[in-house]
Write a structure and sequence with these properties.
This protein is mainly alpha-helical and 292 residues long. It folds into three domains: 6-11 and 27-98, no CATH class; 106-185, no CATH class; 218-291, no CATH class. The protein has helices at residues 61-67, 71-87, 89-98, 140-147, 150-163, 167-177, 218-224, 228-244, 246-254, 258-262, 264-275; strands spanning 6-10, 22-26, 282-284, 289-291. A two-stranded antiparallel sheet has the order 1-2. Helix 8 packs across helix 11 (264-275). The longest helix is centred in the first third of the chain and has 17 residues, at 71-87. The protein is rod-shaped. The N and C termini lie far apart (86 Å).
């Protein structure tokens, strides 16, 4: 419950036992400085104070200097500044005058020059990443790392969706991402992917639970070389690539291991024969053998 600002207290008692009338006074829980206007909840009214002092942090130069030397109490000063700025510009101006000569460190917002990548208010400075001085857009290494992971690309795409209503911020963000960034997260995130099955030469769709397609994922290709179904998949894709784009076919072949390439034709034939139902084999009586 909010403490009342004005309370009624007995006036100074005389030496006699006469009744002392009650007079209105400022509550002892509030700053006793005349003209204090630094209440965080209601700027323009006196602020709360500690029990063992008479003035609030803003009205006592010694308390203010001590508060700015500790990270924990400095945070409260910065929170109060933010409240003043939002609720009462005049109180905010007076608070800044109190801070004249002091350096208030702000580690919450990006230190990048010209940062405008706030997700809340595009066009203003964004909050920095945890234990960093820059946001994900102004940190070159962090941006590369975000582009290379599923969760990172998801966050970047979400931010781009917010920036769309601010064309200048949106274009600046796209310029930082570069031409190799995939706007749609369902497509392969590898730079230069050309392994689309339907349209060889275009970017392929990413595999489930991954940000890479089959051909751009070395682990997936290596595992496919060891299974009949994987061998069949490789053979089908290579045949599709060879009929449309020889450069895509050559790029796909370069993804395969040397040992697999030596036995590619035989392995592909065996995989297809194992996958085909027996009723689809037609007997060629003239030659005494079967063909598909």
């Amino acid at each position: 419950m909010t403490e009342p600002l004005i309370v009624f207290s007995p006036s100074k008692r005389l030496r006699t036992k006469a009744h002392a009338p009650l007079v209105p006074k400022r509550s002892s829980k509030y700053c006793q400085k005349d003209g204090c206007v630094f209440s965080r909840q209601v700027p323009g009214q006196p602020a709360r104070k500690a029990a063992d002092v008479d003035f609030c942090v803003w009205c006592d130069d010694g308390l203010l200097a001590h508060a700015l030397q500790d990270a924990g109490t400095e945070m409260h000063v910065k929170v109060s500044l933010a409240c003043f700025k939002k609720k009462d510009p005049e109180v905010y101006r007076l608070a800044l005058e109190k801070l004249d000569g002091y350096e208030v460190h702000s580690q919450d917002f990006c230190a990048g020059i010209g940062c405008v990548y706030s997700n809340v208010k595009p066009g203003v400075r964004a909050r920095c990443q945890y234990a960093h001085d820059f946001c994900q857009w102004c940190d070159a290494d962090g941006l590369v790392e975000a582009k290379g992971s599923i969760e990172g690309r998801k966050r970047l795409n979400q931010a781009l969706s917010v920036f769309r209503t601010h064309p200048a911020v949106y274009e600046a963000a796209l310029a930082k991402l570069g031409k190799d960034f995939v706007r749609a997260s369902r497509y392969c995130g590898s730079t230069g992917c050309i392994f689309s099955y339907r349209n060889p030469g275009e970017r392929s769709r990413a595999r489930p639970q991954s940000d890479l397609c089959f051909w751009c994922n070395p682990a997936a290709v290596s595992a496919a070389e060891m299974t009949p179904s994987g061998i069949r998949r490789i053979g089908m894709d290579l045949r599709k690539f060879s009929t449309g784009r020889t450069d895509v076919f050559q790029a796909g072949v370069s993804k395969l291991s040397a040992a697999f390439l030596l036995d590619l034709r035989v392995c592909s034939l065996q995989a297809e024969q194992q996958a085909m139902p027996k009723e689809e084999l037609v007997e060629q009586h003239a030659r005494g053998r079967y063909y598909s």
